[in-house]
Amino acid sequence: MKENEFLEIMTGAYEYAYKSVEYVRPVFVFISTIVSYLLFPNEAYVAPTIGLFVALILDIATKYYAISMQNGGFRNAIITRKISSESMWRGTKKKLVSVLMVMICCGLFMRFTEFLPQIAIAITSICYGFMFFRETQSIAENLIDAGHTDMAWFLILVKKKKKEFMEDNDISEGNDSNDSTR
C-alpha cells in the first residue's frame, strides 16, 4: 500500500513537471527574466522602453510603406523584390541589435552604479533620448520618401531638436549608421 502511494506521488510529480515544462516553457521564462532584469532596473524604465520599441515598429512600418509607395503598391514592391524578407530583415536586425545593446548597457549601468544613480539616470536619459530622436527622424524621412512632402517641416523640427539635444549633452554625431535600412 505504501509502495502504491509512493508510485502515485512520483507519477503525479512527473506529470506536474512535464506539464510545467510543456506549457510554461521554462527556457522562455528564464530568458525573459534575464532580459527584464537587464532592461528594467526599476519601473521608470518601462515607459521609455515601450516608447522606443513603438518608435522602432513605426519606423519599420513606414519603411515598408515608403518602399510600397515608390513601387506602385505593396504587391508590386514584393513582385519586383524591392521588399523581400531578407533585405528588410538585414537592416532591421542591425537596428534592433544595436538598440537592444544600448538599452542593456543602460540597464547594467543603472544596476551596477547604485552608489551614483543620478549619473546612471542622466546617461540613460541621454541614450534613450538620442535613440528616440533618431527613430523619429527616420520615420519622418520614410514618410517623405513615401510622398508625404507635407512632413518636411516635421523632419526639420526633429533634426533641429536632435542637434540641440546633442549640443546640450556634448555629443558629436559622427557616422550615422541608421541608414542601413535605406
TrEMBL record:
The record's subcellular location field reads: Membrane
Q: What is its main location?
A: membrane
Annotated TM spans: 23-40, 46-66, 96-112
A GO CC term assigned to this protein in UniProt: membrane
The record, for Pfam families, names: Phage_holin_4_1
Sorted keywords for this record are: Membrane, Transmembrane, Transmembrane helix
Give membrane topology per the record: Multi-pass membrane protein
Q: Which InterPro entries match?
A: Phage_holin_4_1 (IPR006480)
Q: Which family does it belong to?
A: Belongs to the bacteriophage holin family. Cp-1 holin subfamily.
Q: What is this protein called?
A: Phage holin family protein
